[in-house]
Design goal:
CATH topology of chain B: Rossmann fold
CATH topology of chain A: ABC transporter involved in vitamin B12 uptake, BtuC
Distance between the termini of chain A: 83 Å
Radius of gyration of chain A: 23 Å
CATH superfamily of chain A: ABC transporter involved in vitamin B12 uptake, BtuC
Strand content of chain A: under 5%
CATH class of chain A: Mainly Alpha
CATH architecture of chain B: 3-Layer(aba) Sandwich
Strand order of the largest sheet of chain B: 6-7-8-3-9-10
Largest sheet of chain A: none
Mean pLDDT of chain B: 87
Strand content of chain B: 15-25%
Helix content of chain A: over 70%
Oligomer: heterodimer
Number of helices of chain A: 12
Order of helices and strands of chain B: EEEHEEEHHHHEHEEE
Mean pLDDT of chain A: 87
Low-confidence stretches of chain A: 281-299
CATH class of chain B: Alpha Beta
CATH superfamily of chain B: P-loop containing nucleotide triphosphate hydrolases
Number of helices of chain B: 6
Structural class of chain B: alpha/beta
Amino acid sequence: MDILELAFMQRALLAALLVGVTAPAIGIYLVQRRQALMGDGIGHVALTGVGLGFLLNTSPVWVATAVCVVGAVVMELIRSYGKARGDIALAMLFYGGMAGGVMLMALSPNGSNANLTTYLFGSITTVSEQDIVAICLLAAFVIVTTVGLRRQLFAICQDEEFARVTGLPVRLLNLLVAVTAAVTVTVAMRVVGLLLVSALMVIPVAASQQITRSFATTFAMAVAIGVLVTLSGTVTSYYVDVPSGATIVLLAIGVFIALTLLAAPLARKRADKAALAERCTLEDAAAPGAPGTADDVRV
Amino acid sequence: MEQPVISLRGATASLGSRPVLRGVDLTVRRGEVVALLGANGSGKSTAVCSIVGQVPLTGGELELFGTPRRRFRQWSRVGYVPQRTTAAGGVPATVREVVSAGRLARTKLGPSRRADREAVHKALELVGMADRAKDSVDALSGGQHQRVLIARALAVEPELLIMDEPMAGVDLASQEVLASALREEVARGATVLLVLHELGPLEPLIDRAVVLRDGCVVHDGPPPKAVGQHALPGHDHVHPHADPAAEPIRTGLLS
């Protein structure tokens, strides 16, 4: 296949693969904690990092990573300490990040609207050699964290109050989730773009959980869906000449719809079974002299 | 004398600006089963939350196993059942996955070993949910959710079991299962502190009842006997309590 002989496509496919793995891998914990849109918030903040990278004339990926991590930690602190009006504080952070990015980009000598667009919506074929090294290192960190600490992260995202009583370092693990999400955003920004990053964290998980029953299966399937859509989206965008980020996200939504349709008959079958079981017990209870009526209390 | 398992002295706590605990003394000794009773808003849940560190005390002293709460680190000795109506999160999880989280107090950041998996299985058997281990918690009834939450607390094989309204929204069949699970834990030598709205099927197990009203202890002794409608088996307590001041405390000492 000639597509694999082109250096820029090799880099594109490697980046797509890593995004396909990492975005759902951290996304599942955010969804579990019902914080599905956190990735979106970090994506907004990342733009300031990209703008700063252009202004300082250094690698936007590393500067964006640093700014994202700071932004995510602030968001986590707002989440855990701020009780009232936390949403307002987050809104400030999101839109401040967005506006800051646009402003910095405009101020920098070699920034332009075209550059801004590649970060907002992704431009996978322009991933450079330097970028790919950064993406590999960051992706490795995300995978080690989300897989290695899966039992601990599962516990804090399932029931934080309970997890604290097990003596786990909950605050530290929460910060780790935030930092990992931030890192994932910068891994994914060249592939799907900052505005669509969150989609890849949430949609594969949402699609997967239509038909799964366990966390482990949901995790594995979400990653499989992630890899499937990022790779096929990248290949499609090469042949058809459409933007990679949009292609990937639309494919993911397609998978979600397909699995939802598939899940409907499955759920109906389960509901029928449950209804049948319920009818049986009602009949038992209604039968005269059946056990159960004996315990009835008459006042 | 042996160190009490829980020692709370003169505890005060507030939620927002409202004082909820106003000088609560509570001592639970090894092997005791203590029920914390009281009307809604009496501070019984807050008392338990402060013992496990969810609500900070604004005053007073708290010791767990003879160690001041601030320096207490042996969480594997404590099993906690928070007040919940569901064990589910935003992503599907099986009964076993949820219960396994309880074991983290022992494994911490390390791997899960065979002994851990066996303890999880044993906890599931205790609450009669072993056959549902692979089912999603989303598919469970209210009583089964509660059983899962209790199994999660038992998975760590705790010396002290702290439960916040474990019987809330639980059907009678599950109440019986939970009562027998608790009986086994007590027979094993566990110490239990539980918040209850009413004694119900747990009554025979309870050594001592502590009744709170407006953040103060108003009774500490044998469990009060239920009377009238409340005494009937299967009485479903769904109505809110009347003004607690209107009702005398029945200690059962005179009956």
